[in-house]
Amino acid sequence: MTKSIRVAVLAAAVTLLSACTAATVPVSSVDSSGLGRAAVHVGIAYDSAGRGDKSFNDAAGAGLDRAKKELLVEATEATTAAESDDARADTLRGLAQGGSNPVIAVGFLYAAAVGTVAKEFPDTLFAIIDDDSVSAKNVVSLLFSEEQGSYLVGVAAAQATRTGRVGFVGGVDVPLIHKFQAGYAAGVHSVDPDIRVDARYLSKPPDFSGFGAPDKARSAARRLIDDGADVIYTAAGGSGGGVFEAVAAAPRTWAIGVDSDQYASAAEAVRPRILTSMLKRVDNGVFQEIQAFVKGDRAGGSKRYDLKVDGVGYATSNTVLGPYRSGMEKARYRILSGAVKVPTK
Predict the structure, then answer these.
(1) pTM, whole model, 2 decimals?
(2) CATH superfamily, with its number, for domain 146-280+315-337
(3) Where in the chain is the domain with CATH 3.40.50.2300?
(4) 235-264: b or e for each residue (b if 16 or more CB lie within 10 Å)?
(5) pLDDT tens digit string along 86-130?
């Protein structure tokens, strides 16, 4: 190539880049090696509770926010318009048609929709949180060991109870939420097998409203408290706020949150009564999946987030947890060493 041609090509490239920059549409980002790469546009589909649930969806959103800041990706966020497979499929389809790749579905309720839409867009990578039922080359499952984190907060509950009775409020009576209950009960009984663990579920399939029914959660927690429970763990998504309200209104009781550090997001009057939260690091899962895509990983399959990779854990924001942390850390090491295998049922 002659010098004059090279100069002309370079000038054209500079002109094009300047035009794109003026339009505020990023055409590339720069990785640690200094090489340019095409911008990644992520689509994320929340369940019907959407962002603002102070739980599951917000955790996923936090991972996306981190990716936008650190990886310089663009993003489109959407929330399903209705609790139906067709509505969820429309949400995913709209993201894929709009050019998002990867598309991340937040929650196992998207399973059928992912199975349908992934076939329509074979060149788009779909990631789904909490489900591994869809087997396709362009579908990756992001799975979490909720039972392990629940075991740790169960240890705290066993140490904190004065009545010898603790409670569990599950959003929907499904196998996923059973993992939370099973791990929690196992953690409680590892400290004292005589402590009673009572459970209440807010709805059963095909009714999935239990993830967004704080009034039902408040009533369920009140019944548990009336029966003597003085520590209540909630794994109910957006319904958890109802549990916190019931605990705040009862003397000498504690609540344990889920997914994100709910002490940090709770109302001022409720905050002191949230002993800890089981951290399900959906934020890490979402961020790491986007990071893998940016680096060129387009493979389907499944990825597991457990204690070993900081996929689950517990919050320490409330200083009253201090006396119980030694026992929780000992339990963590027993799980990591393989001495304890936490049940999922």
Answers:
(1) 0.84
(2) Response regulator (3.40.50.2300)
(3) 28-144+283-308, 146-280+315-337
(4) bbbbbbbbbbbbbbebeebbbbbbbbbbbe
(5) 999 999 999 999 999 999 999 999 999 999 999 999 999 999 999
